[in-house]
Amino acid sequence: MLKKISVIAAVSFALAGCATTPVVTSQTVIVAGVGPVEIERVDVEVAAVDPAKRLVVVRQGRQTWPVAVPPVFGDLQNLRPGDRVEVRRVEGVILDVKRARKGAKPAIIYTEASAGSSFQNLPERFVARSLTVTARFESFDPATNVVSYVGPAGPRTHVVADPDIQNELGRLKRGDMVELSFAEAFLLQKT
């Protein structure tokens, strides 16, 4: 079951990074060790699956976009065109920030997935993982500790708690391409 959820998770997280205007609903919960966080919910339909190329095309309304699914998420044989998938995602903390290589484009790279969650108050079926978002840096406000950036999912903001990361963000200029490493949790289920 976890492998099936993980496959759908890869599809859905790439959705968050590849769609230009996905319809997202959210609710706020308190997570031990993180504080108040938003649980985002996105509903999509699987439009096509190519297991050999590890590619899934998802659809929301008229928009479709391809999603490359990393091998860590297992076999894609369980996904079929027409399957409806509900994705719930909790963005946790920024773990690291660094300048991206020259010529980098907005992207999302998944670095690990595990069944054990560092988000203690979330339901047991949430899976925790790390990912790196390559994005264009917009600004950092030291008064509120909010970083603004434009990544694959468009403009985003995030509160930064770590003083070392805050210092690093203070050195960046608007327009710099950066790599932001996050911890997050997700839950996926067919609907």
Automatic annotation (TrEMBL):
PROSITE patterns: PROKAR_LIPOPROTEIN. Keywords: Signal. The keyword Signal applies. The keyword Signal applies. Residues 1-19 form the signal peptide. This is Polysaccharide export outer membrane protein. It comes from Bosea eneae. The lineage of its organism: Bacteria, Pseudomonadati, Pseudomonadota, Alphaproteobacteria, Hyphomicrobiales.
